[in-house]
UniProtKB/TrEMBL annotation:
Gene3D superfamilies: 3.40.50.360, PAS domain (3.30.450.20)
Protein name (database record): NAD(P)H-dependent oxidoreductase
UniProt cross-references to Pfam families, sorted A to Z: FMN_red, PAS_10
Organism: Limosilactobacillus pontis
Domain spans labelled NADPH-dependent FMN reductase-like: 3-148
Biased composition (Low complexity): 371-381, 409-418
Lineage: Bacteria, Bacillati, Bacillota, Bacilli, Lactobacillales
Chain positions covered by the region annotation Disordered: 333-418
C-alpha cells in the first residue's frame, strides 16, 4: 500500500479542500495510506527564522521524504494559491531537495464554476520549477467547483461526475508512483543490498576481501555504522537488520543540518567541528534507546596523515554485555567462557584481566595505554551542547546530549519524537 502525504493548502479553520482530503483518505483506504498535514503548523517562511523555531518544518520534510507521493490540495484566492501554501512550498524547496523527483499530484476545490483551475496552473508551475523539481503527473486534473453543492453534510463527494474523475486521476497517480519506484529499486536500492561489482576484491595491508564479503560484514557485525563525510553530508550507513535508527537511501547526500532535528543541529555540529579542528577524536554516549541500554560512539575518521575524512558513528545495544557482567563473567580468576576458575589456590596472580587480549588472554597494553589514545584534553572553552568527556575513555559524564534519551537520535542524542 502506498504512503501518501496530503497537504491542506490553506490555514483557514474551515476549508472544502480539507474536506476533500478527508474524503480521499476514507474513499481510497484500500489503495493508499493517506496522511493529512495541516500547513497551519508551519511558521511563515523567512530565511531569518531561527533554527530553534524550525522543528515543525523539519518534521514536514521527514514526512515528505518518507512518503511515496505528495498531494497538494489548493483553493483559489485572487486567481492564485494562498500565501500559506506558497510559504509551505518555500520551506520544502529552500536549501533542501525533499521534493526533487518526488511524485506529486494537485487537486483543488473552490466555490466558483471554474473551480481552482488558475491556482492549480500556478501550483503546477511552482512544482516543476528547478528548486522543487518534483515529478508532476501531467494532465490528471481534479477540478471541483460549486463546493457548497457537491459535498454532503457528512463530507462525502456526492457529485457522480466529479467523484468518477477523482477516482480515475488518483488511480493514475498510484500507477505513476509505481513507475518511479521500479526505477528507484533498480538504480538506488540495488547497490545498497548488493555491490554492483560483486566479484571485485579490495586488498588491505592485512588481507583481501571481496565486495560481497565487505557488504555482509557490515550487515553482520552487532552494531550499526553511519558516516558523515568531510563536507558534512550524510554519506553512508550499514545495511544492518533491525537498526536502532532506521535510515533511508533518500537521506543520502543530505547536509547534516537537514537530516537532524533543528534542536540537535548545534550539538552535532559542535561534535563534528571538534573532530575537524583536532580537539577530539572520540565522544561516547551511553543512553536508553527503544527501551534498552545502548552505547553510541563517535570517532573522527582520519587518513594515515591525520587529515579529517569525516565522522563515523557506532551504535548498538549493550544489554547482552551488561548481562554477562552482571552474571560475573569478568570476575577475577574466572574462565571467560565458563566462569570457572583456572587457577590453583597457590598459583601466582595473573595480570589484570581488563588488559588482556580477548583472543589469547595475553596483555597487549602498556601502563599508559587508554581507550582514546590520541584525543587531547578538551579545550578550555567547549562548543555549546557538548558535555565534557573523560580524557582516557571519551565517556560522557552526563550520558546524553538531550535529556529525553528514550527517543534519542542515534547521531546526536537529541529527541526526534513528534
Amino acid at each position: 500500500m502506498k504512503k501518501i502525504l496530503a497537504l491542506v493548502g490553506t490555514n483557514a479553520n474551515f476549508s472544502y479542500n480539507r474536506l476533500l482530503l478527508k474524503f480521499m483518505k476514507k474513499h481510497f483506504k484500500q489503495m493508499a495510506d493517506i496522511e493529512i498535514y495541516e500547513i497551519s503548523k508551519l511558521p511563515a517562511f523567512s530565511v531569518d527564522v531561527p533554527l530553534s523555531e524550525q522543528t515543525e518544518v523539519w518534521k514536514l520534510k521527514q514526512k515528505v521524504k518518507a512518503a511515496d507521493g505528495v498531494v497538494f490540495s489548493t483553493p483559489e484566492y485572487d486567481h492564485g494559491i494562498p500565501a500559506a501554501l506558497k510559504s509551505a512550498v518555500e520551506w520544502l524547496s529552500y536549501h533542501t531537495t525533499v521534493l526533487k523527483h518526488k511524485p506529486v499530484m494537485v487537486v483543488g476545490v473552490s466555490y466558483g464554476r471554474q473551480a481552482s483551475a488558475r491556482s492549480q496552473v500556478q501550483m503546477r508551475q511552482i512544482l516543476i520549477s528547478p528548486d522543487c523539481d518534483a515529478n508532476l503527473i501531467p494532465g490528471n486534473e481534479v477540478l471541483i467547483g460549486g463546493a457548497t453543492h457537491v459535498f454532503s453534510k457528512d463530507g462525502r463527494l456526492i457529485n457522480d461526475e466529479m467523484r468518477d474523475n477523482l477516482e480515475e486521476c488518483f488511480t493514475h497517480f498510484i500507477e505513476y508512483i509505481q513507475i518511479f519506484e521500479n526505477v528507484d529499486e533498480e538504480e538506488v536500492k540495488m547497490p545498497i543490498k548488493q555491490p554492483r561489482i560483486s566479484e571485485a576484491y579490495i586488498k588491505f595491508p592485512t588481507g583481501r576481501l571481496s565486495l560481497k564479503e565487505v557488504q555482509q560484514i557490515f550487515s553482520t557485525i552487532p552494531f550499526e555504522i553511519d558516516l558523515i563525510d568531510s563536507t558534512d553530508h550524510f554519506a553512508w550507513y550499514s545495511d544492518k537488520p533491525n537498526r536502532e535508527h532506521v535510515r533511508d537511501v533518500a537521506s543520502l547526500g543530505e547536509p547534516v543540518t537537514e537530516c537532524h532535528p533543528p534542536k540537535a543541529v548545534p550539538a552535532v555540529m559542535a561534535i563534528i567541528n571538534s573532530f575537524r579542528d583536532g580537539k577530539r577524536d572520540v565522544v561516547t554516549r551511553p543512553l536508553w534507546m527503544n527501551g534498552h541500554r545502548s552505547l553510541i560512539q563517535y570517532y573522527a575518521l582520519r587518513d594515515v596523515d591525520g587529515h579529517y575524512l569525516g565522522t563515523i558513528e557506532f551504535t548498538g545495544s549493550v544489554e547482552y554485555i551488561l548481562g554477562l557482567f552482571e552474571k560475573g563473567a569478568w570476575d577475577k580468576g574466572a574462565d571467560a567462557s565458563t566462569g570457572a576458575s583456572k587457577h590453583e589456590d597457590n598459583a601466582p596472580a595473573e595480570e589484570d584481566d581488563t588488559t588482556a587480549d580477548a583472543s589469547t588472554g595475553a596483555s597487549e597494553s602498556s601502563d599508559d595505554t587508554s581507550t582514546d589514545t590520541v584525543a587531547p584534553a578538551p579545550a578550555a572553552s567547549e562548543p555549546a551542547g557538548i558535555e565534557e568527556t573523560d580524557a582516557d575513555t571519551g565517556a560522557s559524564e552526563s550520558g546524553s546530549v538531550d535529556a529525553d534519551d528514550d527517543a534519542a537520535d542515534a547521531t546526536t542524542g537529541a529527541s526526534e519524537e513528534e
